[in-house]
Design goal:
Shape: globular
Distance between the termini: 12 Å
Helix content: 10-25%
CATH class of the largest domain: Alpha Beta
Strand order of the largest sheet: 15-1-12-13-14-18-16-17
Number of strands: 18
Order of helices and strands: EEHHEHEHEHHEHEEHEEEHEEEEEHEE
Bound molecules: 2-acetamido-2-deoxy-beta-D-glucopyranose
Length: 472
Amino acid sequence: MRFTAAVLASLGGLALAQTQITVSVGSLLQEIDGFGISQAFTRAREFEESDPEPRQKGLDYLFNTETGAGLTIIRNRIGSTTTDAILPRSPGSPTATPQYVWDGSDSSQVWLSKEARKYGVTTIYADAWSAPAFMKTNNNEANGGYLCGVTGRTCASGDWRQTFANMLTQYVKYYAEAGVPVTHLGFLNEPDYVVSYSSMQSDGNQAASFIPTLYNTLQAANFTNVSIACCDSIGWGGTRTFTNQLVSAGMERYMGIMTSHAYNGDPDAPPLSTRLKSWQTEACDLNSRWCATWYSNGGPCEGLTWANKIHRGIVNANLSAYIYWQGFEVNQFQASSYLVASDGRVVTPSGRLWAFAMWSRFVRPGARRVSSSGSVSGVGYGAFKNLDNSVAVVFTNTGSGAQNVRIAFTGYTASNAQAFWSTTWTDFDRYNHDDHIYHYSNINYSDIDTDTTGSMRRGRLRAVWWRGLVWM
Ligand SMILES: *[C@@H]1O[C@H](CO)[C@@H](O)[C@H](O)[C@H]1NC(C)=O
Ligand SMILES: *[C@@H]1O[C@H](CO)[C@@H](O)[C@H](O)[C@H]1NC(C)=O
Ligand SMILES: *[C@@H]1O[C@H](CO)[C@@H](O)[C@H](O)[C@H]1NC(C)=O
Ligand SMILES: *[C@@H]1O[C@H](CO)[C@@H](O)[C@H](O)[C@H]1NC(C)=O
């Protein structure tokens, strides 16, 4: 503990018992890559084609760190249909010269990636839901089927693995030329779930019979900086199986991240057994009409529900990234599978967006989660050291009452602190318009009795709460 006493914030004269947690800033855990969304399946185009004012509001809600969630990852879909694939037609055989088609827009995903880049977003995850039909056992880019040539799956037309790897690499090349380099590349989406739109089946061993080909193709094209992702399984349980197969098959040396969706099991303890990073790449509420609620009864569309899911994913499941399905949609009020709604004119953020904000605004790409000890009743928390040497502690209070905690550090001396807390999700939103309503406190640490052996004299602390008090 580097400082001995400080009681600087109080609200409404409440006197509460104080719990202490200790954050070990020198004890580094996983690196955080960020938080994000997709605008796949024409949603980027709707976004681009919105009127300038709602479009700008939508972008700000998603990517602005002061007025929005400050998201830092885009997940783009690599098309596989005859109208959106860069290789829409079969060249005739796997070794024939492919005729690529590139319209420079990629269903407006290039536009979205460039707009996000203006806010500092540099992490672009490009993911194929399927290979084109002619490369597959079912000759269809939908309804499952396998990539011809993977373990146990052959086709009369030949082995298309290298052609698929070439196509994916060409896609990466087009994005590099457009000025929005792809950083992560996946070739499967829910390979353990067959649907009537773009889908392709695989298990971990079949993925392992393709990954080295993709790796070598990227290397040969000088895309040594692109991380291969696998396998976007439908849920955490399936991802565990994929991970074990991939690790056994020696794939860690070719891959960058293990990826999971959360439809059939949320990421939670224990972490996957791999030395690679783990990302949750697609989750959403598929059952509710549009709802903007922060908290009502713990329902699947509510903000606090997602704050908890993100908390468990990052803290219990060792995730480095958490991605909601869609970001911005227009006139889709039958669904809550996205974060920001537009009716074409009025733009409305959801409680889910603010759940992402309380993480993504404060825990920035390159941050390391750090160890901590001590618990607060009914409150989850995670502590992070950002690249700018600020330390952020994110608290999620699931109880109905205010909580009070003192934060102590080892390996760190805070010179000043900011606490952000919110008793209802709308406070987060109102903060953007009216500082007086938002409970904001800038805590001055300069007169705190600090131990001068602290390794960082000029650090900053940010604590984020939902429903609570923070005493430091
Ligand atoms: C990765 O390398 C490629 C090829 O050298 C380059 O075009 C691209 O900008 C790099 N990506 C990043 C994120 O720097
Ligand atoms: C890869 O980079 C090397 C060294 O800069 C260069 O000689 C080679 O032509 C590049 N290969 C491709 C496919 O761009
Ligand atoms: C957490 O993930 C990192 C990779 O980001 C890995 O090195 C580490 O072993 C994982 N920790 C646990 C407890 O699984
Ligand atoms: C913090 O407190 C010190 C000592 O009381 C004072 O000199 C300094 O101006 C304060 N800083 C801010 C930003 O209020």
